[in-house]
Design brief:
This protein is mainly alpha-helical. It contains 11 helices and no strands. Helices cover 76% and strands 0% of the residues.
Length: 278
């Protein structure tokens, strides 16, 4: 529960897929398991730091109150030790198992999420933009782990996950608006809270995801089937965002939230299975 396993799994899955998409990289179970372990540990460390810093606000929200820290089952010092050990172990695995460039990007992701995005949530809604950077770094980490360089393919995957986060997170913020407001989090791009302007912005980002999803094909990383799937699943995600704009209600926001998970899983799998073999 401290490491938010479901969220962490999705993040690490995108990292592994990006690694396997690097030209010349073949499937190697040991390498995949190492990358998975390193990613789980670094992402888990970032989530623990997030919960340490938000211990008091977590007590105010029904969704987070049962977590170990606000519930008193774990002390801050104990959680800090776990965060340090898991973070250091994850970075070491990436450094020794792959390369230190990937390890460095992982450290950057951990710092941005734990120490920049987390406190920013109390300041203003730019926290969503700030948080989108560490949130989009896992596929770039996976690409760098395989290529040992920042190249166009890695940035294309970064762009997909970067754009994906805005409608995804605003949908979550819409559903949990009461809880977030009680905790003092400023996560909506409008002071008025959920409304048509936020739904419109969500739709704009889902629209941008359609060409972004086609980019790996245009760069020669994947075949044309992935481009077709990207357009189709991007249209589905856009449809859910338009439905939210039309209805502006919690059920539509919840559908957009679940639609975001479907989109990410489908686009990643489509890219992976349609990789261009050299």
């Amino acid at each position: 529960m401290m490491m938010k396993f479901t969220l962490t799994f999705m993040v690490v899955f995108s990292c592994v897929v990006a690694y396997l998409l690097v030209p010349g990289v073949e499937f190697n179970l040991i390498k995949v398991l190492l990358l998975f372990a390193g990613g789980i540990l670094v992402s888990g460390s970032a989530n623990i730091i997030n919960q340490i810093l938000e211990k008091e606000t977590d007590k105010l929200m029904a969704r987070t109150a049962p977590r170990p820290l606000p519930a008193g089952r774990l002390s801050v010092s104990e959680a800090s030790v776990v965060a340090i050990v898991t973070g250091a172990a994850g970075i070491a695995i990436l450094g020794f198992g792959f390369n230190w460039l990937a390890a460095g990007v992982s450290l950057l992701s951990l710092v941005l999420y734990g120490f920049v995005y987390t406190p920013w949530k109390k300041w203003n809604s730019l926290a969503v933009l700030v948080g989108a950077f560490p949130g989009a770094l896992p596929p770039l980490i996976g690409w760098v782990a395989g290529a040992n360089a920042f190249t166009e393919g890695g940035w294309a995957l970064f762009a997909i996950q970067f754009l994906w986060q805005f409608p995804h997170f605003w949908a979550i913020a819409w559903v949990a608006h009461t809880d977030y407001t009680r905790a003092g989090f400023k996560l909506m791009p409008s002071d008025k809270g959920p409304g048509k302007m936020i739904a419109l912005q969500s739709a704009m980002y889902t629209l941008l995801l359609i060409p972004a999803g086609v980019a790996p094909y245009l760069l020669g990383v994947t075949g044309y089937i992935s481009a077709i799937v990207a357009i189709a699943i991007g249209g589905f995600y856009l449809y859910r965002a338009i439905a939210l704009y039309r209805k502006c209600d919690v059920p539509s926001a919840r559908k957009l939230m679940f639609g975001s998970y479907i989109y990410l899983a489908v686009i990643l799998l489509a890219l992976l299975f349609d990789k261009v073999k050299l």
